[in-house]
Write a structure and sequence with these properties.
four-stranded antiparallel beta sheet; 52% helix; alpha/beta; globular; four-stranded parallel beta sheet; Gyrase A, domain 2; binds arginine
Length: 588
């Protein structure tokens, strides 16, 4: 199905043409003055110069051509030359009927579906997920679902941090505790244990301990660097132990990501492409891209037009160790070989801005990717507390993501129990579901690059621009539909009617923009557009609901028309939140 604004523009273009003007002037947009009209066209103003005519004269002539139009029920030419428009109710109804009958409510499949790899999550082994990881998981997961919904093929990769000094610190920490493990015996040639010898809690204890010690004890730091090097070189014992660290970490990460309804197709890490590194280094040297500078191997990524300093991209340190850069670049090489993607999207903290500029430039310059591969980076802002500073626990520590989820669930449970008849078990289950919406919507309704304040009380409120409000609206519609069925009505057979009131028309108009909104959210990689749409839709529905007595309406045709409109509203809202990452319960 064509997009609403395109349909309106087509009609307007024909009127311009019929009046003797260029059809291209007939571009229709949303109204700047919703108090006066629903849509507007400024083409007469634009055409005035070209046709040496007063804009109001052009507007009048075009308006005359639209008398009797089914698309517009009102066309007003107003000084100095605007065309103020109202959409025809019958025409609007027909659009909704088409939406009902088409898959995805009239969203057209992309001409050429893309293959997209999305790199999000970015968790680090042996370290618990913290509040910062919330954003990557929620934004990345949603962008993945949006693009899938639209019709692209999307592969999500966790790209775990399991490569640099952080791995060395864990390995050397384990060695301190368990020097007798076969992993550390260079003469050992047998098989390594299959079962993990440590738990995630132990790893989470070892890492900070080891990191702290390395900062004050240079000898220890040297050992950690050596362990890093051995792991990176793939020395048998260190590599095997590193894999075990990965496994134990992934198992625990899955638990927390599951609670966020987030998963990955690939649980690859920075270390996954270890064997590609020598080949990539050779390729960069052979191609004349990489050169030695102060002992290190670097690629220049400066461009003439740069106004800021752009340091070279370091591929190998002077001791031969590879870096965060190196693994990201080799991962690009790997992704190109395995998936041949049209686009690679990264979702990370916005402080990695310069870093990704370097990596992308380096990948392009060295032709690791062809010119037709779109490299996109989405940098997200910080989650702050009510004091405007980075979110912390009450005693000033880093907030673990699982505790943040738990706190949100508890608060939601309290609110649900307050005034609602529900068994404890049902309330717990509902609270989990609504809490997820509170968290995700609280995050996604902000533009990704902006910092936001994590305000538990506001996020879990049933009123305002919040996840629970959206769910509450869906639950309200579900309950009306259930009651209609109890009255003996059949919602599936209900037929849409022409809108009777302004509120009903406003709801229909918002619905009719679904396909354009979803397409825009996908191309702009902007989940917040879906939030804005669904919030407006919920408001439109509630306005309509408050002034319409639906279930007590005696005219059955009218009642059925509203029921059909409610069903469509519910279905559109449900698809919208599903791509955001959450779903509505039946009751709340
Ligand atoms: N592990 C990294 C960190 O904690 C984030 C990884 C982001 N993704 C990437 N391809 N570099 O900062």
């Amino acid at each position: 199905m064509k997009k609403l604004l395109d349909l309106l523009t087509q009609e307007m273009g024909q009127a311009f043409e019929a009046a003797g003007y260029d059809a291209a002037l007939g571009k229709v947009g949303l109204s700047n003055r919703p108090d006066l009209c629903e849509f507007q066209c400024n083409g007469a103003m634009a055409g005035a110069k070209q046709y040496h005519k007063a804009p109001i004269m052009i507007a009048n002539e075009v308006a005359a051509k639209l008398s009797g139009s089914k698309v517009f029920e009102e066309v007003q030419a107003v000084a100095p030359g605007f065309l103020n428009l109202k959409i025809g109710k019958e025409f609007l109804k027909d659009i909704l009927v088409t939406m009902e009958s088409e898959p995805k409510f009239g969203l057209e499949a992309p001409e050429k579906p893309k293959k997209i790899v999305i790199d999000y999550g970015g968790a680090n082994v042996a370290k618990p997920l913290h509040v910062g990881h919330l954003r990557s998981a929620v934004i990345g997961g949603s962008i993945k679902r949006i693009n899938r919904y639209v019709g692209h093929e999307v592969i999500g990769d966790a790209h775990l941090g399991d490569w640099g000094l952080q791995m060395g610190l864990v390995l050397v920490g384990l060695k301190e505790r368990y020097p007798d493990w076969v992993y550390f015996d260079e003469s050992y040639t047998g098989e390594y244990p299959k079962e993990a010898l440590f738990t995630i809690s132990e790893l989470e204890e070892i890492y900070p301990e080891s990191s702290k010690r390395s900062k004050v004890d240079p000898e220890y730091k040297a050992k950690a660097m050596e362990a890093t090097y051995k792991f990176q070189q793939g020395e048998r014992g260190y590599w095997a132990l590193g894999q075990m660290v990965r496994e134990v970490s992934i198992k625990d990460l899955k638990r927390v990501y599951n609670a966020l309804n987030t998963g990955f197709e690939l649980w690859n890490g920075e270390s996954t492409i270890k064997d590609l590194i020598p080949e990539m280094v050779q390729y960069m040297k052979d191609g004349g891209y990489a050169y030695i500078s102060e002992g290190a191997l670097v690629v220049d990524v400066k461009e003439e037009t740069d106004t800021k300093e752009m340091p070279p991209c370091m591929i190998l340190k002077s001791d031969g160790a590879s870096l965060y850069n190196t693994t990201d670049l080799a991962t690009i090489m790997d992704r190109v070989r395995n998936f041949d993607p049209d686009q690679i999207i990264y979702v990370t903290d916005k402080r990695q801005d310069l870093y990704f500029q370097q990596v992308f430039r380096c990948a392009r310059k060295t032709k690791l990717v062809g010119p037709d591969v779109d490299l996109k980076w989405i940098g997200f802002g910080t989650v702050n507390g009510n004091d405007g500073k980075p979110f912390k626990t009450r005693d000033g520590g880093v907030m673990r993501l699982e505790n943040l989820i738990k706190d949100t669930q508890d608060e939601m449970y309290r609110k649900i129990r307050e005034g609602r008849e529900m068994s404890e078990e049902e309330a717990r289950k509902t609270a989990e579901q609504v809490a997820l919406a509170a968290l995700m919507y609280g995050d996604l309704s902000n533009q990704a690059s902006k910092d936001y304040i994590f305000d538990l009380d506001r996020f879990t409120s049933f009123e305002g621009d919040t996840g629970p409000y959206i769910l509450y609206t869906i639950v309200r519609i579900k309950s009306i539909l259930t009651k209609y069925a109890e009255q003996g009505g059949n919602a599936d057979a209900a037929k849409l009617q022409v809108a009777q009131s302004d509120a009903e028309k406003a709801l229909a108009m918002q619905l009719s923009q679904f396909n354009a909104m979803m397409e825009g959210a996908a191309t702009e990689l902007a989940p917040q557009r879906i939030c804005a749409f669904v919030y407006e839709l919920a408001n439109d529905f509630n306005r309509f609901y408050h002034e319409t007595k639906i279930l007590t309406e005696e005219d059955e045709v009218k009642k059925a028309g509203w029921i059909a409109l409610l069903s469509l509203t519910k279905n559109v809202m449900e698809d919208s939140i599903k791509v955001l990452g959450f779903e509505a319960p039946d009751k709340m």
